[in-house]
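Changelog note: in this version the structure field was regenerated for every chain. One regenerated record is shown below for reference.
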Amino acid sequence: MSRNGERDGSSVPDEVWAEFLRSSAEGAGDAPKEPSARDREAAGRLRAGPAEPVPWRAHPPARARRRTGRYVAGFVAALALLVVALDPGGLVGWSGGGDTAGKPLAQESERPSEAPPAEPGGRPTLDEPFRGSPAVRWADGAAGITVPPAGATGWMTKAEVGRALARTRDFLAASNLDPAVLRGGRPDRAIALMNPHQKDVRTFVTTSLRTPGKDHDPLLLFSRFDPAQARPAGDVVKTRGRMSYREGRLGALEVTADVTYVYPVAPAGGGDEVVRVIVRRETVVSWDDPSKVVTEKGTFSLLSYKTDMTNGGCDNDTGSFRPEFGGGGTGADPDGEAVDPYDRRGPITDGGGRCGTATRS
């Protein structure tokens, strides 16, 4: 992000800040008073409770790593799990061209009671990148994210809740489905929806995008590939998941999203091998009452995030997914657990810091 666009340590671009300032000016008469540090910490702990933050990464029949998240501005930064598939050659992910087998699934409205059944075998191809994967029956892009009916909640009217839910889904799309971001671009549209006054979150995002590392991994929030290493196998990302909401701290609208994304990719240098990178994210955000919390119009505060990554690179701190091609996995930790990346029955759990093994891709 442009250094010229920073405000009080912010990494948000100038044009985004300009929009924030215009929005603020319209309602300057209602400028809220920021809660004390103790109040914000207490709110963070209360909000973090139901989110069950769990950071780690795991890897399928190859490798999977987990690592704990960090606390951000009194909010929980959950753990991430990465899984490198057991059969890297059977992974796939971006486009749905040619994958017509099976009846499309209805949208997910609640936590499933069982894992999806096995699909007919076969390796993915450039024409059928989801062959052999349960994702072949999933919806494309944001259509796979179920948005519940809106109802008046906390400080928001029914119409305001509807807009907040739509903007939350916009954030998920801008973070995980935007073609430019997937090819390594900056997620500026996603950042524009995040409360710029949440300084620790802003610092984490700025640092992770500028100098990614073990403690600052942008993959915990954004899906990105290195175009020099992998290219999309088509133009479709398969998704499945749902959003829910409730009244949160200080009357805020608290929205939880639990979504799995399946990306088919091929080697950047050419060739017809296709593998899949599978990413599940549990994200909790708060649309705060501006009379009680310092925020900006049209933005949310990030409460917690948990990420499960399969075939994204077990020991990867590059800031981009690193899918393995040619069956080049180094092997999973023999003490790591087996993970089905398509099983959405329970919440993301702590992987204990080991690389696990994916049962399918």
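Spot check on this record: The two ends are 35 Å apart (CA to CA). The first helix runs from residue 14 to 26.
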